[in-house]
Amino acid sequence: MKNFFTSLVIFASLFFSTCLLAQTAMVQVIHNSPDPLASEVDVYLGSELILNDFAFRTSTPFVELPAGSEIVLTVAPSTSTSVADGIAAFPVTLTENETYVVVASGLVNPLGGFTPFQQFDLKIFPAALMTADPGKTRVLVYHGSTDAPTVDIVETSVPTGILVDDISYGSFSNEYLDLPTADYVLAVQTADNSTTVQSYSAPLATLGLEEMALVALASGFLDPSVNANGPAFGLFVSLPAGGELVELPVAITTGIADYKNLKKVNVYPNPASDYIIVSSEVENAQITDMSGTFSLNISPDANGRILVSGLQPGTYILKSQNTVSQFVVK
Fold this sequence. Notes:
With 330 residues, the protein is mainly β. The chain is 5% helix and 43% strand.
């Protein structure tokens, strides 16, 4: 089985060896069709195979494709032998020196038992980005879940509030979010903000995504049982270098109110930068961030201090066997 990145390199060398002066554009292609029949596909440019066995929830790097005149991208089964086996063809005219993100989205088989059925399509975002400023991460959001309603994306840990308002299936956010590179918690909420579909950790700092421009995609089915038992809903990230999409973990949101049976005690200094001291005797404790994705078992030193200088700034829960506290690292 040929790797699809290898296919791109082969195609690029063949194309540009004969068309060195051709107009080109930069394009990243993301496979986000959850139809089991499209778990792997072939992609043709004209009659040339450029992506072989292109897998669901993977993306290409940004590559050069012809611009300035119409080209035809054809999607075919992974068993195809030529472009004649294609199941969908898309005429596209790219603008010279422009940068694009192209998302393969929707469903192939109208008889596959999907509720609702959303036709397979290529969704194109022009003026795509690959980098961000120092200390920042840019994020383009795409709603690619065929059975999910119109939603808001809300940041709940800082909190920043609504980042993307009323985004529907098949739509991109109007522009990239230009965010400080930090760790966030993103809640996917119904458009009236009455229901949280799910919350996800977006650890941009922990994953080392500074100075990158990313595409975050809603992917899969909210209810696989009425959608051919296809892949379940989640948030995934496509990196500029391509490869397997990065799955964002479900956030386990916690707070001091969740520990109803534990004695609430104070810590000082609060906020802290180097250490904290608990107002009640503690032998072994667990420090957890507010998303529930970070956990550290720790004990006080000989002076009763718990060192917190290695923690990122933010709000934390300190839990022992019988007590619970909340504190801030600055």
